[in-house]
Amino acid sequence: MKKSLFALAAVSAFAGVAQAQSSVTVYGLVDAGVGVTNIDYNTVQKQNQTTIGGFQSGNGTGNLSGSRLGFRGVEDLGGGDRAGFVLETAINYNNATAPTVAATMTDVAGATNATMFGNVRQAYASLGNSKFGELRIGTQNSLLKDATEGFDPQGGPNMTGSGSLYQQGTVTRYSQAATYQAPTMAGITLRVQTTVDGTASNNGGATAANAVPTSNRSSSASLDFTQGPIKVGGIYERRTTWALNVGTAAAAASGGAGNGFNQMVAVGPGGTLSAIAPSINYYALGASYDLKMVKPAVLYYNQSVNGANTQQSGTTSGVLFGLTAPLSAALTVTASYTGGKVTNNNTGVYDTAGMQFVANYNLSKRTGVYAGYGSTDWKSKIPTTTASVTYQQYTIGMRHTF
């Protein structure tokens, strides 16, 4: 009897150890509020829109943050080794249906984001070691996104503002990426990333019907130093044989990251457009200092589209200045301003400016209410070929994390 009890206790102990070595966490964020959008296109055409729920985004409905649902797992393999995974999807709770139509799995107009689950935000497996670092394979944030948003007081929100400028035309998430993160030493962390798009190509002979002799690829590296209240970081990314995501005037007005507006004007506002850019280079440098009562930050960014000739080449660049002020244990105010410019063929095309103000009041550790204002201004330097655009958004809402 005593032996049986001893064996049972031993099995229970081993089961407890195994359970401690592996864990899975369910997490998420829901952002809901009311937003107002005003667009002034060349002082002639104006557009106003009120949204209840949150601004639409393939990365999750929300006014400040994209709503999401995620699963995170980690297993201790012993000897300092570990394995893990992250599966994170966007949540579109507005469901993209008409206001008077019941929410269904498919919108009556066949619109995107018609289902509750939107784009894959992250989906990768990882293998790491305490001495040698970690390797991640799969869909994940671009190093450019993580590095630049680290100096944005609001961390790249859905609402227009500074992020609409330093992320303009960039890729914030890659679906086929490999990322290596070295162990942090003396406050310094190095990360490198490479991505492909999986496009079939042909190296000789007839090109197959489903093959394209170009391929979108990127390579990037980031370095940051954190010591006490000081943070300094930099990022460099190079995309090669890149198919430009050309924006329209309406998309240009939205100022959202990834619509290719900066690429459109850079490679030819007058209509000279190259569908494939031989290379696009992006680099940024940032710094912040936490003074407890206020945290100032600065970020310089520069993106150059290198076309087949000068007519198809240009740059977007600027400087972000940000402040974070915790006015009390519950109330935090953030503000940012970005001034920049867009050039084509060494000629100024736009002077750009973005600003953002957000007040967030925490009701608990997981729930907060907020009010915010953001604007992005594109002032044309060549009125005969490009239009000036002003984009403004106002919002109030709440965020809950779990």
Describe this structure as you would to a colleague.
With 402 residues, the chain is mainly beta. It has one domain (24-198, 214-401): Porin, CATH 2.40.160. It is 11% helix and 53% strand. It has a 16-stranded antiparallel β-barrel. Strand 11 (276-289) and strand 12 form a beta hairpin. The longest helix is centred in the N-terminal third of the chain and has 20 residues, at 2-21. It is globular. The model is unreliable at 1-20, 97-113 and 245-274 (pLDDT under 50). Keywords: Cell outer membrane, Ion transport, Membrane, Porin, Signal, Transmembrane, Transmembrane beta strand, Transport. One of its GO terms (biological process) is monoatomic ion transport. It is a multi-pass membrane protein.
Strand order of the largest sheet: 1-3-4-5-6-7-8-9-10-11-12-13-14-15-16-17
Per CATH, which architecture? Beta Barrel
> If helices are DSSP runs of H or I spanning 4 or more residues, what is the number of helices?
5
Number of domains: 1
Provide the succession of SSEs: HEEEEEEHHEEEEHHEEEEEEE
The tally of strands reads: 17
Output the structural class: mainly beta
Return the CATH class: Mainly Beta
CATH topology grouping: Porin
Distance N to C terminus: 46 Å
What spatial form do the alpha-carbon principal axes imply? globular
Low-confidence region ranges: 1-20, 97-113, 245-274
Mean pLDDT: 81
- Main pleated sheet: 16 strands, antiparallel, barrel
State the share of residues found in helices, binned by percent.
10-25%
Q: CATH-wise, what's the superfamily?
A: Porin
What is the rounded Rg?
Answer: 24 Å
